Amino acid sequence: MDFRLSEEQEAIRAMALDFARDELAPHAIDWDQQKHFPVETLRAAAALGMAGIYIRDDVGGTGLTRLDAAIIIEALATGCPAIASFVSIHNMCAGMIDRYGTEAQRRQFLPRLLTMETLASYCLTEPGSGSDAAALKTRAVREGDAYLLTGQKQFISGAGESGLYIVMARSGEEGPKGISAFIVEKDTPGLTFGANEKKMGWHAQPTRAVMLDNVRVSAENRLGAEGEGFRIAMAGLDGGRLNIAAASLGGAEAAFDKALAYVEERRAFGRAIGEFQALQFRLADMATDLEIARTFLWRAAAALDAADPEATKLCAMAKRFVTDRCFAVANDALQLHGGYGYLADYGVEKIVRDLRVHQILEGTNEIMRLIVSRAIMGRK
Amino acid sequence: MTNMRSELKRLMHIVVCIKQVPDSAQIRVHPVTNTIMRQGVPTIINPYDLFALEEALKVRDYHGGEVTVLTMGPPMAEDALRKALTYGADRAVLLTDRHFAGSDTLATSFALSQAIAQIGKSFGTPDIVFTGKQTIDGDTAQVGPGIAKRLNLVQLTYVAKIASIDFSARKITVERRSEGGTQVLESKLPCLITMLEGTAAIRRGSLEDALRAARSEIVKWNAAEAGIEDMTKCGLRGSPTVVKRVFAPTPRAEKAAQIDTTEKTVRDVADELVTSIFTHQPALEHELSSSRSA
């Protein structure tokens, strides 16, 4: 076993780190403060191949692995976790179309998604069903060669700005087997959006409710077979969870680096605070946590790439562990900054706010424990 | 006729000399010893060399041809070459040999010029050799002209922009920044250009470019492979420059004076400034008034 990245992986990592340093980090605090969604910057990332990281290359995708994607998202998140996370969500949606879409769907939608001329949003959660996703109530009623979708989706990242929505809706019986997935375009009549939610972090991307009122979607835009939607939605999430974990990791690294520099500059009691062993030990623990998180994240990503039967469990473990530990590291970095860490200008409190939601979305960390315990105990 | 046709058909070959340097923006000075803390400082491609590379790539994209990047340095300088390949260079040559250690600008320009001659033999004679105007670590601006002199190339220094190239007529027009304005210079090819910070933004390699760069073979030459015979001109032996002392600038004891400009006319401010200067430099006032009367 060789724990080193390959030369190719080192190269894509360096490239993504450069992009994060030059194009994301200098603006991250501003975007957060102004609640600005930098679509042009996203398109610049897309032009470099970051909108279709694991999309097959016949439609212009970059054709990389999940492990490569985790490396790229981690690097982007050192500049801005909120933007890295949106890149992750967009890649997840594109990946679902690439993997489960028909040839016609792939050719119709993926080229636009790969340039980010069209952004994509993932619509599973509803006001009344979050963790209990299989209980969703949005209905898809078949009418001739189309479906009429009616219902509401909640906490949708990119909603209102995205041009394409992957909507999970009930086309049949109760439970997971009655759910189908649909590709819905923004300009479809009956599709409307709520106000941009006021939230704790992730200010650089909008979050809105998505309302569907008899939205007519051609049967040609159903993704996968009828009743396959829940499985597709969950399969997308395995990789999505790795990426969200990677975004936490990159954010925590950035916060850690800020703390490392700060303790050498800040003086108290006649010396740099970095000379106090209590703080040195804290930094040692933070660095160790980051290393563990990264090693395990890569292990889970490699399992998903290898279609390991344990991949879902490992992805859930990684998502829970990495997002929890990295939030703690970022929060410690804030603490090491003292009062300055609480000020927006230092950029640490922003990372803490951004990373907090990673413990909640793409399946809460409680649901991750549920997935893991089911897997290890063999229960349903 | 055959010769002429093959000359016309020949694609342009551009060599860009780059150097891996410490990222000066990330160098910190030790607060107590005042020495530069080099540990853990990441390396970058010398920024002026990046502008040179960007200009070379633009010329190639427009006229066709190939860009070869060349660096002299330790084996780790390969990282800089890979990055240059990511930006779109076609070929990379690493000139590395322990005998090059301790080279000053004289020895460096000797070794690089020999390597460029070897590149010419192996991959086609270069039409343009680019360097940055200077490196941010050495700041001498001597290596580019040194190469030009040794290879007998026309040297166009401090170039801000390439205005046009007529490859079939073997002519190039550049804008050169000089004191008092911009010179528009026409030259024959081949030539050597040292680039200022360019007008265009430096391109960014895509993920695919990064992958291609990682998969590329880098040409590695030691002194002998680069065709260097006279080793007395290399490394410390070939370097007459002796660095006697390195020191950090001493901080000035006096703070800059401030003039409050809020409720004053421009004339008042100017008067106050001149008075203040003369107070600090009484000799200057005397000198100025005597030169005026003379």
Mind sketching the topology for me?
The complex is a heterodimer of chains A (380) and B (294).
Chain A lengths: L6 H28 L4 H9 L18 H12 L3 H20 L2 H13 L4 E4 L15 E5 L2 E12 L6 E7 L8 E7 L5 E3 L13 E12 L3 E2 L5 H37 L1 E2 L2 E2 L4 H29 L5 H26 L11 H9 L8 H13 L3
Parallel strand pairs in A: 1-4
Antiparallel strand pairs in A: 2-3, 3-7, 4-5, 5-8, 6-7, 9-10
Helix pairs in contact in A: 1-3, 3-4, 3-6, 3-7, 4-5, 4-6, 6-7, 6-8, 6-9, 7-8, 8-9, 8-10
Chain B lengths: L1 H8 L3 E5 L2 E3 L5 E2 L6 E2 L5 E3 L1 H17 L2 E7 L5 H10 L3 E5 L9 H19 L4 E5 L10 H9 L2 E13 L4 E8 L2 E8 L2 E5 L11 H9 L3 E3 L44 H15 L1 H12 L1
Parallel strand pairs in B: 1-6, 1-8, 6-7, 7-13, 8-12, 9-12
Antiparallel strand pairs in B: 2-5, 3-4, 9-10, 10-11
Helix pairs in contact in B: 3-6, 4-5, 7-8
Structural commentary:
- Chain A has helices spanning 7-34, 39-47, 66-77, 81-100, 103-115, 229-265, 277-305, 311-336, 348-356, 365-377; strands spanning 120-123, 139-143, 146-157, 164-170, 179-185, 191-193, 207-218, 222-223, 267-268, 271-272.
- Chain A has 380 residues and is α+β, with helices and mostly antiparallel strands.
- Chain A folds into 3 domains: 7-119, Butyryl-Coa Dehydrogenase, subunit A, domain 1, CATH 1.10.540.10; 121-227, Butyryl-CoA Dehydrogenase, subunit A, domain 2; 230-377, Up-down Bundle (Butyryl-CoA Dehydrogenase, subunit A, domain 3).
- In chain A, the strands form 3 sheets. Chain A has a 4-stranded mixed sheet with strand order 1-4-5-8. A 4-stranded antiparallel sheet of chain A has the order 2-3-7-6, with no helix packed on it.
- In chain A, a hairpin with a 2-residue loop joins strand 2 and strand 3.
- In chain A, helix 1 packs across helix 3 (66-77), helix 6 runs parallel beside helix 8 and helix 8 packs antiparallel against helix 9 (348-356).
- The longest helix of chain A has 37 residues, at 229-265.
- Chain B is an alpha/beta fold and 294 residues long.
- Chain B has 2 domains: 10-233, HUPs (Rossmann fold), CATH 3.40.50.620; 251-294, no CATH class.
- Chain B contains 8 helices and 13 strands.
- Chain B has helices spanning 2-9, 47-63, 78-87, 105-123, 143-151, 207-215, 266-280, 282-293, and strands spanning 13-17, 20-22, 28-29, 36-37, 43-45, 66-72, 91-95, 128-132, 154-166, 171-178, 181-188, 191-195, 219-221.
- A 9-stranded mixed sheet of chain B has the order 11-10-9-12-8-1-6-7-13, sandwiched between helices.
- In chain B, helix 3 (78-87) crosses helix 6 (207-215).
- The model of chain B is unreliable at 1-7 (pLDDT under 50).
- Chain A binds chain B through residues 6-8, 10-12, 14-16, 18-19, 22, 47-50, 53, 62, 64, 72, 272, and chain B through 31, 82-83, 86, 204-211, 213-215.
